[in-house]
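Sat 14:20. Reprocessing the chain from the morning session after the first attempt stalled halfway. Input below, unchanged.
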Amino acid sequence: MSCFDGKRIAPSCWQMDWDGIRRGEYSDRYFYNGVALLSRLTEEGYQFQGFSERLRALGLPPRPPVSVGEMEVTMQIFARRAPFTVVAGTDLALAILQQCTGYWQGNRFVNTAHLLEVESIEDGECTPYEGDPMHVVPAMRIRGRYRDFAMLETVILGVLTRMSRIATNTYRMLQASGGKPILFFPARYDLPQTQMMDGYAYWIGVQRYNADTGKQVPALVSTPAQTRLWGGQAVGTVAHAMIACFLGDTVELMLHFARVMPPEIRRVALVDFENDCVGTAQAVARAFFERYREAIERGDEATARRYILHGVRPDTAGNLRDKSLQHLPDSPDLYGVNPTLIRALREGLDRAWESWNLPPEWHERARAWCRSIQIVATGGFSEERLRAFEEAGVPVDIYGVGSSFFSNSFAEGTNTDFTADVVEVKVGDQWVPMAKVGRQANANPALKRVRLADTPERAETR
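Finished this time. Tokens:
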């Protein structure tokens, strides 16, 4: 459930291999082995015969007659990213518990999810972390017979880690961009099967940023699959390959795009094909404005809408220096999409109308039309690079970011790994602490009880 819309995503929406998860095909093998051992001990009627120093230290009998195979535990799950994590993936984690908690009886899976006590925060809430795993803020707490959900740890941690990483990276990059929109462009860098979850995690990060700042930054993604769980719409105009199909003539391509495609699709010209961003942008702008003006003068507002140039996108490779900068002394700072190029592009667009030989009554309108053309900068952007552009006052309107959304690096401060610890076990009618050294049970007032019904498709939050 997202804290922004209060809606629970049904397990069927996630398109997971539920049967494979139940059989442990996605679990680390030691969890499978553990379940097999506990199940066998239950069949044998084994009761604990060792000696527990932990219990003795607590003043309890060190050899209680408890069934190890039936052991009930408290597990807490938390993120280890400082200073905080924007949590995403709790709905999927709950769906995994809902669908896959239980045991096999021959070829029949017996679902016992309704016997668990589960507490969880909601997608979009934040958990702080100061670097000490003894003092954490759990995102989820699970109580129940351990062998029924032991094999789910790998999968639950995986979805929470991936989705929270993307949500938190999104949040931090929006902070770095000062709230300028950031296009979500990592689809080409990972498996198609992850797009739906990744796009949802990005949306969670955007909503968290908007809630914290009071802004209304749009969530902009590149594939329909990325919108499937939150109802957005994919955006995009043309690729370099399309310019090649038009034999390198970006103007001709964009004119046909404007003529054919619905006016609701933003016209954003990719302008680096010939490594002449300023010249290409000015040429597209001039061709569009000529048709825009002709349509306005004959009273054809519908056609005029087709020839509004919403933006231009420089995507210059890092080993190239744009034609507009080649008169300058060579410097590494002038390669790729760089501040000097963006400033030259902005100035070139703002002044483009001056060479169009327009009648005086069109001067002001043409000036405003050119200044409204946005610059969409793409190519190697990270949180650090976004911050550098903004601190330098570079006139970018929208950024496009790719693989940096997936960054999970200690060096970059983006590691978002989740951890699960058993912190209590039930001995008789008493819950006793049983965490490994260096860990302990921790509280989080934001945790809400979630009832996993005996009907696998349903889950309710209290």
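The first helix runs from residue 18 to 22.
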